Amino acid sequence: MKFILGTKLGMTQVFRQDGTVVPVTRVQAGPCVVTQVKTAKKDGVGSVQVGFGSQKKFRLNKAMRGHLKDLSSVRFIREFRTDLTDTGLERGDTFTVKVFAPGDKVQVVGKSKGKGFQGVVKRHGFAGSPATHGHKDQLRMPGSIGAGGVQRVFKGKRMAGHMGDARITVKNLEIVEVHEDAGELLIKGAVPGARGSLLIISSDEGTMEVQKETEAPAQEEVQAEPEMPANEDQKEESTVSTEETSEAPAAEEKTEEENKDVQ
């Protein structure tokens, strides 16, 4: 299983090698950091908690600061149900868009644009009533809402109400291009949400490629050792030189004593 978090940048179009035009959505994805790894034995469920985006530390409450100890302050946190044997993720691991490749099929989860309170024509696609022939002020009205004998409205009746601002999942979308330097994914077609909204991108196939935090090896201190002569000849030369230096002052003393005797 592969997954990543990102934000929607907008839509554009790209050309394939055969010249066909493909409409794509630009997504700024990653880098993401693993904030927690849950196991079925300890937490009751196997999942990976992922953080994305930057956040000022003072905006986090004390509980979140403790949860993100020794990690960077993230803005979004989401969990993915997965088997830990497939991912091999650990707390503190970081991954980018490199986990995906062109041609991968993914599903994208986002929150649709909120449209407020809307009528049945826009919300459910009702055709409305005729504009003339006795239908005064009935053009966009819902009409009858059911039989009168039951004295109630059946559940699920399509009526006016709040529209949008809902969790939407779009499956089987193709990744057209992966821009590693910019950290962008180009996904074929449209995805839910406005510009800048959070997107959850996942695929059941493949494995995660993460960057492990490695510590620099400690440098060993090398102590300077005194230089030793390489062979016995060098040892003999050193002893001879020391004897000559010791005999030189003794010879000078003898010459001085001889001069005194002569006088």
From TrEMBL:
* Lineage, broadest ranks: Bacteria, Candidatus Magasanikiibacteriota
Comp. bias (Acidic residues): 254-263
Complex and partners: Part of the 50S ribosomal subunit. Forms a cluster with proteins L14 and L19.
Q: What Gene Ontology molecular-function terms does this entry list?
A: rRNA binding; structural constituent of ribosome
Record keywords, A-Z? Ribonucleoprotein, Ribosomal protein, RNA-binding, rRNA-binding
Similarity remark: Belongs to the universal ribosomal protein uL3 family.
Spell out the coiled coil positions from the record.
none
Give start-end positions of Low complexity composition bias.
Answer: 216-229, 239-249
UniProt-recorded name of the protein: Large ribosomal subunit protein uL3
Entry's Gene Ontology cellular component terms: cytosolic large ribosomal subunit
| Xref: Pfam families | Ribosomal_L3 (PF00297)
Q: Which SUPFAM superfamilies match?
A: Translation proteins
HAMAP family recorded: Ribosomal_uL3_B
Q: Where is this region: Disordered?
A: 205-263
Q: InterPro entries, per this entry?
A: Ribosomal_uL3 (IPR000597), Ribosomal_uL3_bac/org-type (IPR019927), Transl_B-barrel_sf (IPR009000)
Q: Which gene encodes it?
A: rplC
Its GO biological process annotations read: translation
> What does the UniProt record say this protein does?
One of the primary rRNA binding proteins, it binds directly near the 3'-end of the 23S rRNA, where it nucleates assembly of the 50S subunit.
